[in-house]
Design goal:
alpha/beta; Chitobiase, domain 2; TIM Barrel; eight-stranded parallel β-barrel; six-stranded mixed beta sheet; elongated; disordered N terminus
């Protein structure tokens, strides 16, 4: 084992791989003299499946399905509108060998009754081809994604493969192993928090991240859009939020910023929806709001003119809970947010909100007395409750960090527990739903010395379940699932993938695969195969899983240099 947690292996140069396959094909076609239907094709493997399906029956001695003329798509009429995108998602275009009578491989996607939301059944055999059964389009898409992993990684093609990659060495097709799979997720909420507020990320990068999430059956993008250091969402009613709040001056005098237009947001949300990923926006309140206060100083308790913050940390200037104008602002912002995001949930933050200004603010103290509240923590709960009630008029629920529990939870609120899982379990016992993302296992911006791949994989969301917890009991809330959090104080866009991968893949398996089936050794073996697919997509997954650098001419194995990325400190 390497110090990075996996055995080192040589980089397989894509051009050498292409040349090798070309040589094999040329030998068969020109020298071997055999019939064309014996053409050797790249073959997929069940060892490429991550996350591991709930039920997998492989048939290693059975003939594989040969796909030599593309796919013959037969999609249930109820999903006809999905067929075009599904065909783009699944590699399979192939040119039949000249003179052959190859036919497209049958691929049937059939709607059946009785399966869970994302559940599917997948069968592959050499005679009848591929059959995917599901009750929902999401389930069918998850099945197609599993099928994609059964196709050899070297045959990956399409938009996820960078244009500078060589053409896949599969000009005449590939083989898919015979399998029967029945699969469904363990948890319904399997998310990634992407902080685009502290460092702005380009829309195309957000889309690429969505593609990578979908490939690993992550179904929620928690999009962190507002912070002390930047406001990233265009709001028509308050244009200074992006004219002023989207930009900050760094300590060295450089300017950083950017924002998403309404059209870009709609495009990203639609892109996610095609992949059956829900985008949950986070609009922070009452804390982490310096960018908004810089745009409109009257939103704060002092009215002071403040810059958009360039330092990291927690700051005492927050939204004023005593002024009706501030509440009016928040409700107007949320009106535009719900128009852009169809998610049933809106995340309102609620964490790390110092009450220093509120204690000295006459308006806030008056509000406390008028509402009969005991203290400033209860004032925060009242403020969040006002926003929650307004969102409920639009049929939406709030999610907030576990601090929202401190002054009492509004009806219907879901708690995201980050300071361990205790706050989430307390909420569940009180009848509220929860999502877990504890710093101990789920903060993917943390350095590897703190949270490595093995630690993430061994996380058990139920490990600290209280004695009184019984899933499904009347009055009991639900553990919806978990999220990997990628805060970006120390992770601008070019470092994001190296923080996420491969740790996000481990978390994806924790949240999808039944605990009894999970094995660290088995995961390592499958991940080692999966790296070929990440290489094909040019995912920057180092340093945890850096390949060895093989000096071919000298026959020397060079020690991989430690990446500067591992030096990034935790938020």
């Amino acid at each position: 084992m390497s110090p990075f947690g996996r055995s080192l292996r040589p980089v397989k140069h894509p051009y050498l791989a292409s040349a090798a396959w070309a040589a094999v094909l040329a030998c068969i076609a020109l020298s071997c003299g055999g019939p064309r239907e014996t053409l050797v094709l790249p073959r997929g493997t069940v060892d490429a499946l991550v996350p591991l399906p709930a039920q997998l029956q492989s048939h290693p001695t059975a003939p594989a399905l040969r796909v030599t003329a593309g796919w013959d798509w037969q999609v249930d009429s109820v999903w006809a509108t999905h067929r075009g995108f599904w065909a783009q998602w699944l590699p399979g275009s192939a040119q039949p060998v000249s003179g052959s009578e190859a036919q497209p491989a049958p691929l049937r996607v059939v709607r059946v009754e009785g399966l869970a939301s994302e559940a599917y059944r997948l069968g592959v055999d050499s005679v009848s081809g591929v059959r995917i059964e599901a009750t929902t389009a999401a389930g069918a898409f998850r099945g197609l994604t599993t099928l994609r992993q059964l196709i050899p990684a070297v045959c990956e093609s399409g938009p996820m493969v960078p244009v500078d990659q060589p053409a896949p060495p599969c000009p005449h097709g590939f083989e898919v192993p015979a399998v029967h799979i029945a699969d469904a997720p363990t948890y319904s909420h399997r998310g990634l928090l992407l902080d685009c507020a502290r460092h702005f990320m380009e829309p195309d990068f957000v889309k690429r991240t969505l593609d990578l999430c979908a490939q690993h059956k992550i179904n929620v993008l928690h999009w962190h859009l507002t912070e002390d250091q930047g406001w990233r969402l265009a709001i028509e009613a308050y244009p200074r939020l992006t004219e002023v709040g989207a930009w900050r001056t760094e300590a060295d005098g450089t300017r950083h910023g950017g924002f998403y237009t309404r059209e870009q947001v709609r495009d990203i949300v639609a892109y996610a929806a095609e992949r059956h990923i829900t985008v949950i926006p986070e609009i922070e309140l009452p804390g982490h709001s310096r960018a908004a206060l810089a745009s409109y100083p009257w939103l704060g308790c002092t009215g002071d003119t403040l810059p958009v913050e360039h330092r990291w940390g927690v700051f005492k200037d927050i939204y004023c809970a005593g002024q009706d104008t501030t509440l009016g602002f928040l409700k107007a912002v949320m009106e535009e947010v719900v128009a852009l995001f169809p998610s049933p949930y809106i995340h309102i933050g609620g964490d790390e909100a110092p009450k220093v200004r509120w204690e000295d603010c006459a308006a806030c103290q008056t509000r406390i007395r008028q509402m009969g509240l005991p203290d400033a923590h209860a004032l925060q709960s009242w403020m969040i409750g006002e926003v929650a009630r307004d969102l409920a008029r639009h049929g939406r629920q709030i999610i907030g960090w576990d601090e929202i529990h401190e002054g009492g939870l509004p009806p219907g609120a879901t708690v995201q527990s980050w300071r361990g899982t205790g706050g989430g379990w307390e909420a569940i016992l009180q009848g509220h739903d929860a999502v877990f993302s504890p710093t101990s296992h789920c903060y993917l911006d943390y350095p590897l010395a703190t949270t490595n791949l093995e630690k993430v994989y061994h996380w058990d969301p139920l490990a600290e379940a209280p004695a009184g917890y019984r899933a499904g009991d009347p009055g009991m809330g639900r553990l919806l699932g978990g999220e990997g959090n990628l805060w970006t104080e120390h992770a601008p866009q070019h470092l994001v993938e190296s923080k996420l991968f491969p740790r996000l893949i481990a978390l994806a398996e924790v949240l999808w695969t039944p605990p009894a089936l999970r094995s660290w050794e088995g995961f390592q073996r499958r991940l080692d195969v999966h790296y070929d697919r990440l290489d094909r997509w040019k995912v920057q997954y180092e340093p945890e899983a850096v390949h060895a650098n093989l000096h071919i001419s000298a026959g020397l194995l060079l020690t991989p240099a430690a990446s500067a990325r591992s030096a990034a400190s935790a938020a």
